[in-house]
Amino acid sequence: MARAKKEITCDAVVVGGGPSGRITALALAKTGVKTALVAPLDAPQDARTTALWKKSIDLLKDLGIWDDILPTAEPLKTMRMIDGSKRLIRSPETLFESAELGVEEFGYNIINAELNNVLAAACSAEENLTCVDDFAENAAFSEEKAVITTKPGTTVSADLAVAADGRNSLLRTSAGIEVKRWSYPQTALVLNLEHTLPHRGISTEFHTPTGPFTLVPLPGRQSSLVCVETAETAGRLKTMDKTLLARELEDRARSILGKFTVISEPQTFPLSGMTAQSVISDRLALIGETAHVFPPVGAQGLNLSMRDIADLISAVAAAQAKGLDIGSPEALRTFEHKRMADIRSRTNAVDILNRSLLTDFLPVQAARSAGMYLAGKIGPFRRLLMREGMAPGTGFQLRP
Ligand SMILES: Cc1cc2nc3c(=O)[nH]c(=O)nc-3n(C[C@H](O)[C@H](O)[C@H](O)COP(=O)(O)OP(=O)(O)OC[C@H]3O[C@@H](n4cnc5c(N)ncnc54)[C@H](O)[C@@H]3O)c2cc1C
């Protein structure tokens, strides 16, 4: 902890203590970059869970923290899509199985609180990382330096600042980076459930006319639920008596997991989107929800942020190998070049998928239905979708 220290000079400063910020700080520090993290020391409280695909898990393994998360994580072996609408044109049920790709699991469902706690402990213990236990109050960027100041007056100067301070980022605004924002007529109700039947590693997504209703396995006979609804219905469900709520959710899930018991406080998240017009500025890189926000459809948000982090680390390593400083325009341009296409394509894919569920327009329903039919029948197409869902650009490597 560095509260007493008033002036800190380092190679990189990361601002924001959510998963993106802490993973970046840890990754930079472990690659030998002298790093400071400006964030409250205590891990943020978050009762949600996150489905992380294999490449994201690999990054956590490289950082040496996966073994601490694994005991409370559940492998995701099968993805089942069920058309839960009563529409004229409906999609057939489709199964995506990790074994078909020759892997044990697509990834794991992890408990956010567990991830945040493990990350907070790892950051505190990392020798090459100075933790500044506060929020950033001011950020200034020039061609030479990034300077972050906290309320009590601690100043951190660095060659590179990484903004991981979330969707209303102070750093992004201070650098004058514009964003495009939009909203959806939907709210996600999120909670955890206990059920009487085993989930067998199957994540089930019902496609309903208001959005997905997704059950994702947790250890034992437990699952997390993301139920995308109208704001009005989500609000009604959130305040419902828990026994009645469990019954209503069980009906919606067609009792595939038996009887439900609600085991966490229901939370609601209005769905929205945001994309930063650029992910770099002088001495600044944006990552995670500072750069991109989209609905929780297809478990893409933090997985995309993990690719931001991997690309940032590789741009930093490339700069070091060339003897450049890590916040130089060339290093930042390399990072931006790698990120923009991935961010745009994921944001568009999630947007199209989400809107295709909402529309009553028959040709769109027919196209979605045909896509699911083809995925069910044609192995190479199904495997391509599975690979693209887990990591972009790998879909065309049709191995097994
Ligand atoms: C219902 C739901 C389900 C989801 N499920 C999945 C999933 O299954 N898979 C997936 O990949 N993604 C999922 N996501 C997306 C994922 O949760 C987000 O992408 C992720 O939490 C964003 O992390 P972050 O660190 O980028 O941002 P945040 O978690 O928002 O962290 C930003 C941090 O910065 C801090 N901060 C703000 N201002 C300052 C400041 N001035 N100084 C210092 N710190 C500051 C904030 O306090 C906060 O801790 C889901 C999202 C939702 C809403």
Automatic annotation (TrEMBL):
Range of residues in the leader sequence: none
Family, as annotated: Belongs to the UbiH/COQ6 family.
Domain (FAD-binding) ranges: 10-340
Documented EC number(s): 1.14.13.-
EC primary class: oxidoreductase
Name of protein: Ubiquinone biosynthesis hydroxylase, UbiH/UbiF/VisC/COQ6 family
Keyword Nucleus assigned: no
PANTHER family registered for this protein in UniProt: UBIQUINONE BIOSYNTHESIS MONOOXYGENASE COQ6, MITOCHONDRIAL
Record InterPro entries: FAD-bd, FAD/NAD-bd_sf, UbiH/COQ6, UbiH/COQ6_monooxygenase
